[in-house]
From TrEMBL, chain B:
Keywords tagged on the record: Signal
Name of the featured protein: DUF2282 domain-containing protein
Provenance organism: Methylocystis hirsuta
Top-level taxon of the source organism: Bacteria
Any Pfam family: DUF2282
Signal peptide per UniProt: 1-23
Length: 257, 92
């Protein structure tokens, strides 16, 4: 198949997404094959390739709805949103939002947040490497000045707050253990890090994702704590810090002089 | 420093001290090693050689070049239908 250089790209994309349309102007097939049939194969390959990419990126969502449902849903997403960059690991950035508006998936209200978590896992995997701050150095910090200290978070650090137990759902489907029911009536805030090679998904106490978001913006621990207690009056700071330290979320902590 | 600010500073200092102590205990209990050849397909923790990229991508059960984190000291005593676990990649 050859395309002449003057093929209008937007016309090409329209023909790519709509099987009813003829091949774009300028598309020819060699050896006398009908360009319609050749282009239909290309159209199919593009769609199947992107649906496969989504299936790899959102394996737990696929498990939750089943292969057939997932592929049908992913096809709708592909038609609505082709990749915006040549980097496939960024594909699916709007999938969670799409799923939340996808009428047939309404029966699983936690599905969009599970998709958010899975996207965060993918982003964490591809994030830059950085060495987590060793425990000895954290221990050596002047405790009385931590309130005005700021943190540099590991580039892989992501948080996803949900009204549903997304981490429990995610874990249950990742493990080999026998499936046990997940109590749906509680919220969870997920923390994703990749301190070395392995992805780590854990839960933060309620308010923890607000805490992390404020720190990420270069604000102090005092400000982060205010933001967290605004979300949850009984914010468990110790649990939150323990989880962040243990998962390698801190790369540097600087104490104001 | 106002009373309220002093209070927050104390709370953060205390929480940090406790959190570091808890993290140290948990870390010691959690020391893990990479174990090759013991993960079920799709359940590897990372990097399973050519054609795969990361976690959850190994194509066969007990794939020799896929590894999984297991508690330290237990890897080589894990017995699978394809043989024992290994600290180095293995070819079945």
């Amino acid at each position: 198949m050859t395309t002449s250089a003057d093929v209008d790209q937007s016309a090409f994309v329209r023909a790519l997404l709509d099987p009813e349309l003829p091949p774009p102007n300028g598309v020819e097939a060699s050896h006398g094959f009908a360009p319609e049939r050749r282009f239909a194969i290309y159209r199919n390959n593009v769609c199947v390739g992107l649906v496969d990419a989504l299936a790899e990126r959102f394996p737990i969502c696929l498990q939750l709805v089943g292969d057939e449902f997932f592929r049908a849903m992913a096809q709708c997403y592909v038609r609505e949103r082709l990749p915006r960059t040549p980097m496939l690991f960024e594909y699916g950035d709007a999938f969670a939002t799409f799923v939340s508006d996808f009428e047939p998936a309404r029966a699983l209200p936690y599905l969009p947040d599970v998709a958010r978590l899975e996207y965060a896992v993918g982003q964490a995997y591809h994030a830059a490497d950085a060495a987590p701050l060793p425990l000895e150095l954290i221990r050596a910090l002047p405790l009385d000045r931590l309130e005005s200290a700021t943190a540099v978070l590991h580039p892989s650090t992501h948080v996803v707050a949900s009204a549903y137990p997304i981490v429990s759902i995610w874990r249950r489907h990742m493990s080999d253990d026998e499936m046990t029911p997940v109590e749906l009536e509680h919220s969870e805030e997920a923390l994703v890090t990749r301190p070395e090679l392995a992805i780590n998904v854990s839960t933060l106490p309620c308010g923890g994702s607000a805490f992390v978001d404020v720190l990420r913006n270069g604000r102090t621990f005092g400000e982060a704590m205010n933001a967290a207690t605004a979300v949850a009056a009984d914010f468990k700071l110790t649990d939150c810090l323990r989880e962040l330290i243990l998962t390698g979320a801190f790369v540097a902590l600087s104490v104001a002089q | 420093m106002s009373d309220k600010k002093l209070c927050a500073a104390f709370a953060i200092a205390g929480a940090f001290a406790t959190a570091v102590a808890l993290a140290e205990t948990a870390k010691a209990a959690n020391d893990q090693e990479k174990c090759f050849g013991v993960s079920l397909k799709g359940k590897n923790d990372c990097a399973a050689g050519p054609g795969t990229s990361c976690a959850g991508t190994s194509k066969t059960n007990y794939q020799g070049d896929a590894w999984k984190y297991v508690p330290k000291g237990t890897c080589t005593s894990i017995v699978t239908p394809k043989g024992k676990g290994s600290l180095e990649p293995i070819s079945h």
